[in-house]
Known about the structure:
3-stranded antiparallel sheet, 7 helices, 7 strands
Amino acid sequence: ARRRAVSEPKRVAGEFKRRIGDPVPVLVGGRPFAPEFLVGVLLACVAEQVGQREGGPPERLVVTCPANWGEYHRDLLVQAVRQAGLGEIMLLTEPVAAATWYASRERLEPGTLVGIYDLGGGIFDAAVLQKTDTDTGFELVGQPAGDDSLGGVDFDQTIVDYLAEVLGPRLTGLDLADRHTRRTGAGARGGRCRQGAREP
């Protein structure tokens, strides 16, 4: 997708997870799509590839979401998964999934507090969890916090903005029709390309 984004940027979409619930559609190839629909398509593609690699479909699917998402966003995610034909899923918050993975490698006594922060490509999450009596169980302590508009892509954009400020005309004067220039620019932004009906 990153390679195709260089030559066909209007046919590639990214950062749509942070747009789940946004009524403004994402434009891909000139067609409007709900962000949650694109998430469902992506998850179906991942499940298919894993199934081919492992020799069969998964026995169960676990999908994660930001800890600060309410019922509305969670329901949209579950519906997107169902519409993609993936059936029923187990939905976990991302901090609980991270803590469960950590507990599978480190012995944690019941009552242990674990702080989790997740700085992903588009979203930041932070939460405190407490180990329960079950093998991999955790429960949230207090209210999780997060920012749906802070992630790696925003750091990339800040760097690009800084380069534009420092380089000025040397950057803005580049020929964007040149394929090599577009490829280099995509690399400078971590291969990410903003494409949608509006900037996320």
